[in-house]
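Subject: for your reference before the review

Hello V.,

The reviewers asked for a structural picture of the protein, and I figured it would be easier to keep everything in one thread rather than splitting it across files. Below is the amino acid sequence we used in the manuscript, unchanged from the supplementary table.
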Amino acid sequence: MAREIILYPKKASKNELKEFVEKRGYKKTEHLWNWPKGTLNFFWFDDDDYKSIAGVELDIYPVDNTENKYTNNKWAIHVRNLVSGSIFDVREFNDVVRAIRKKFGGTLIGDYGKNRYAPLWDDDSVPMQRGIEREYKYHNGFLKKITLALPNEIFSIPKTDDAKIKSFIDFTKQQDPSTVIYNGLIPLLISTVESILRSYFIIILKYDTLARQNLENLSKIKLDFSSIEKIEAGIYSKEWIVADQYNFQNLESIKKAFDLFNIDIYKTLHNKILRKSNPRTDLFQLISKLINDRHEIIHNLIFDLSLSKSVFLNKLNIVQNVIDAVTDEIEKKYGFKIDRKNIM
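And here is what came back from the structure prediction:
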């Protein structure tokens, strides 16, 4: 889902439009769409204080005969922004069209009618909130893609209460090639946990003043010459270097990392019960088992040959609940709420 506007300038050459958008900060890019020959594709994204979530796409393209009713100019501007875009993305979506129209004139046609711009909304978000929201949407979007791509079992096996037949069926299920795929995706689930918790840590450390002050008292952070060079060159941030001291695939290490913000990861995960039929099994135990499964697969090539699609999806649900539980705790700690809709 996206919002779109086409601006038909009154008089503007391809090069004039190109120079204008480049001066505004748009970068040349490639586009998956099969645009007409000669089209120039650009992209804008404001990473300062996590202002952008989706950015803005802009295309300078040659007008065809069907569009002559709007303009006699040979070139037009197509601007696109995903529904998941932030208020800053939508504001730029409007402003770039306004700026081009002010300089070159013309008519705009879009989702909101002729010569009408996208409506804005009230937004009082803070940088940490926007960063957490961006990472939440990105990582949950990745899990969604896994769900959509997940194949069904190849063997279709009926259910039965007969013990002997059931034993044979269980053996047959272990020969299903799909089991290899389900097991092979478990490391990706843990990588998702690792990635989002690392990202959360970096974002919070960047904006939590007290945590940064406490960090100055820690003498354990070691920087080699290469790291210092990369910080000075802008390749690494100081927060990234600090995050690199922790292993975000290890719960004990994750706890130590978030202790810096007075967020108790153990308590957060122990307090969340997923299985109503077995109230003693909390989220901490479930994710611990999943981390161990990942270890066995990666290092020992030990697969669970009985793993079915439904059981794998239960494991994916564990990861989603870990993300939600930690996100809930961050929201509570820092007093904001992120938008959990419009997953990318």
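For the response letter, the relevant points are probably these. The radius of gyration is 25 Å. The longest strand covers residues 75-82.

Happy to draft the paragraph if you're swamped.

O.
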